[in-house]
Design goal:
The protein has 16 helices and eleven strands. By secondary structure, it is of the alpha/beta class. It folds into two domains: 11-207 and 298-334, Bacterial extracellular solute-binding protein, family 7 (D-Maltodextrin-Binding Protein, domain 2, 3-Layer(aba) Sandwich); 209-297 and 347-385, Bacterial extracellular solute-binding protein, family 7 (D-Maltodextrin-Binding Protein, domain 2).
Length: 388
């Protein structure tokens, strides 16, 4: 895809803020304009053609009116015939498998962005981590420019800024509203920290409420996990601390491989019920302990330089549709996760901890949380979010 350099005089018609941003891009041998000329002559990576047409009006960019939108199905036909129809193509990656509720929601987001932009903004999704692997590799791909954005869990977010994983501290929240209140209060802080590191958070979301699930044995108290192989995602700095407190053997394994290990060297997982169904792990699970050691969080992110390089109207469409997609998906996933737990309760041996057992779990969670203060979490941020 190519972008034609604007004619002289366009810069003067922009707002001072936008003019400063574009001027900064046009200077320096490593600027976007310079790199584009070196690589492709006068052609650049993204097209400002339509954005330029709007510069005759006041410099306020808004998504197109619904009446001017092109159906996503028509856009896809055009793109199959000529991919250059899209001025901006974003390569998005997620661990979510194709066909899952996450994938369906992200495809709906793609369709809405295509339609609202009149086929100019195209989100191309790579499922299962883009061919395997984990979120550590996904973040590396983002930094290297192989991907532009991602939908990821707290583990991937933690690769960008560790303190965001405080929201997944063991036993920190009793329910979703408690998590929502804490995260909403800290949202401006974390979004600013991500921005400093070259990423923009488009929307926050969740993966599900983790439950303790095992193969072949019940878990009533923390000591029941002693010596058992327990799964966690590679790159997660929180789970190993908790598993060490419980005496379990940490087994970092990618999502694509955990199924082949479950019931063998991995006998326990702390997974959201809906995730277990979608990853086809539920059929191997025999026991569930109805306690939530962690609410698994996530977010939609994009490289800041990619977002800044978009024409203003496409940036507005991307941000507004992305925020809407995140909010809708959060509600859907929480509902689906609850329904999945109901289904699993019908076929698994279920244990609901009594008051004495719950006290033992809460103490184990508290000790694990406090062990995270200072490493990997910044004490100041930790103390602000973790109240006890």
């Amino acid at each position: 895809m190519r972008m034609i350099e604007p004619k002289r005089g366009w810069l003067q018609r922009m707002s001072s803020e936008t003019r400063a941003m574009v001027t900064a891009r046009r200077v320096g041998s490593t600027s976007v304009w310079a790199r584009g000329r070196l690589r492709q002559g006068m052609g650049l990576t993204l097209s400002l053609g339509v954005a330029l047409a709007s510069l005759a009006a006041p410099c306020v960019f808004m998504p197109r009116l619904a009446g001017a939108a092109t159906p996503a199905s028509e856009c896809l036909k055009k793109l199959r015939a000529n991919p250059k129809v899209a001025e901006v193509e974003l390569k998005m990656v997620t661990l979510a498998p194709a066909g899952s509720q996450w994938a369906k929601s992200f495809q709906s987001w793609t369709d809405e962005a295509l339609s609202a932009s009149d086929c100019r903004l195209w989100l191309r999704w790579y499922w299962n981590g883009g061919g395997g692997g984990d979120e550590v590799r996904m973040v590396a791909d983002l930094r290297q420019g192989q991907r532009h954005g991602a939908a990821m869990t707290g583990v991937g977010l933690g690769e960008i800024y560790k303190d965001v994983l405080i929201f997944q501290a063991p036993g920190l929240f009793a329910n979703w509203p408690e998590l929502d209140a804490a995260r909403d209060a800290e949202r401006p802080f974390f979004e600013a920290e991500f921005r400093k590191r070259g990423f923009e958070i488009i929307g926050w979301g969740d993966v599900g409420a983790g439950k303790i699930m095992t193969v072949g044995f019940p878990v009533r108290r923390p000591e029941d996990l002693k010596g058992r192989g327990a799964w966690h995602l590679p790159g997660d700095p929180v789970a190993p601390k908790l598993l060490a407190k419980l005496g379990a053997k940490a087994r970092p394994t990618s999502i694509g491989e955990v199924g082949s290990h479950l019931g063998k060297d991995i006998q326990a997982i702390a997974s959201a019920p809906y995730v277990s169904e979608q990853l086809q792990l539920a059929s191997k699970i025999t026991n569930i302990t109805v306690i939530t050691p962690v609410f698994i969080t996530g977010a939609l992110v994009i490289k800041k330089e990619m977002l800044d390089a978009m024409p203003d109207d496409l940036r507005a469409i991307f941000q507004s549709t992305g925020k809407k997609a995140a909010e809708t998906l959060t509600k859907t996933i929480r509902f689906q996760d609850g329904e999945a737990l109901k289904r699993m309760k019908q076929t698994k041996e279920v244990y609901q901890p009594n008051a004495e057992d719950m006290k033992a779990w809460q103490e184990a969670f508290r000790e694990a949380r406090m062990s995270l203060r200072g490493a990997p979490f910044t004490p100041e941020v930790f103390d602000r979010i973790v109240k006890h």
